[in-house]
Design goal:
By secondary structure, this protein is an alpha+beta fold. It has two domains: 2-140, Immunoglobulin-like; 152-526, Alkaline phosphatase D (PhoD) (Purple Acid Phosphatase, chain A, domain 2, 4-Layer Sandwich), CATH 3.60.21.70. The chain is built from nine helices and 27 strands. The strands form five sheets. The chain has a ten-stranded mixed β-sheet with strand order 6-3-2-14-11-10-24-25-26-27. The protein binds fe (ii) ion.
Length: 527
Amino acid sequence: MWAAMTGIARRHLIAGLAGTLAAPALLFRARADANLFISDSPFQLGVASGDPDPRGFVIWTRLTPGPSAPAGRLPARPLAVRYEVSERPSFDRLVAEGEAIARPELGHSVHVTLDGLQPDRVYHYRFIAGGERSPTGRGRTLPAEGAAVDMVRLGVAGCQDWQGGLYTAFRHLAREDCHAIFHYGDYIYEGGPRASLWSWGLGETVPVVRRHEGPEVVSLDDYRRRYTLVRSDLDLQAAHASACFLCSYDDHEVVNNWVGDHVSRSDVPPEVFRLRRAAAMQAWYEFMPVRADAFPAGGISGPWRAYRWGRLLDARMLNTRLYRTPQPCGDQFGTTCPDVRSPTAEVLGRPQEDWLVQGLLRSPATWGALLQQVMMMDIDRARRPERGINTDSWAGYLVPRDRLLDRLQARANLVVLTGDEHQHWAGEVRRSGADPASPARAVEFVTTSISSGSDGPGERAEHAAVLARNPQVRYVRDERGYSLMTVTPAGWQTDFKVVDTVRAPGGRLSTHMSFRVPAGRSVLERA
Ligand SMILES: [Fe+2]
């Protein structure tokens, strides 16, 4: 498998080398027939780019069958797809071009790893197959290692339950001119079609605005159909086309609140769950613009990786699902129990934790960022008179949490970016039980959902109690949207963006709140 992936990756032809790297004869046999697609574009799922480094990034597409394809499927053979890369949207001069193979084993998805590009530069890319040209996407390489960087603009988004609402926020995010977009996960939700869903914010059941296409997804084909449905959304396609995504997964890419080999509150045997997880991870790989090291091997895709913007920002994307021990307290949200202090608990697992700590302590970058999934602040959820936590967050794992904060204590300017909560949150991260007046170890910005949970009221009934019981929390807001990080050597600004509705097209965007973190101090200032 690795040899095949490397072969695909090497087939891109940088201009100037085109004459020396002729396409092998196989590609002529693999060439896609134009009549497979008739007038329908094979690029109905759009294009995407991701995982940038100073020399390139991954470009992605996935062929879809046209109306005349036999049995509504593409043939079970490799199909050739041409790609073109240019510094100009006109494509009048190509800096890279070549052919990749869309293999049936991978659902005719295409991943091309561009290499040899210039650092810190915008490139445009497109694909050609069956006589049709794809929409154009753009991506930006990272700055050269050690470069002085004035500013980075990072979008953050995730939790996009198809049934929860429209992806209007992605349409707005596509216009933000982001250097990259961190997707924290819950790209799909695994459940079947529903007529209505519970809105935590509204405290009532609301009708869904659109439905899943089939029952709960379990097999590879099921997961592929669910991703195909979600990726058909033009607002999501616009966001993908606008910038490189930094893709991670959370729980719903597989099943609610899975960790390691375990499904929360379930009796599924680990060996059975691993089969489902392998199907889910293959589909995730097929649909995400990720590098070859994310190719599922042994049924898992478990990369963690660093994205460095010169000497300004060292952002480390974490995997908080795959190596985690099971949730404490029976994973009952809003409870607590002695097991939250289990000395054997792990969130990242030691190899990932060591990589994170050693990398951030050695990094010369002004800012260090953790791009991850579940909340790091230890929050009392204020659902009942006694203390209760989200057992599926770092608050349920206080030993590895405090150990990580201790190990990173010498690291200044630490920012944690999180998803999962379906609300915007901002606050300070301290060791558990620390004096709220003591200096914080980091600040955390939690980005709300694109659509999960449907429209929110802004303020929830429990917010007053949450803020009163948790002095480290500075802001919480229940609305749909995304967030925008503007990072400079002097400070880090976070803009919390919200749309006024996801239940009807055309939701209007506003910035509900902005915070600034001055370099040198882990404090939140209203911007
Ligand atoms: Fe979610």
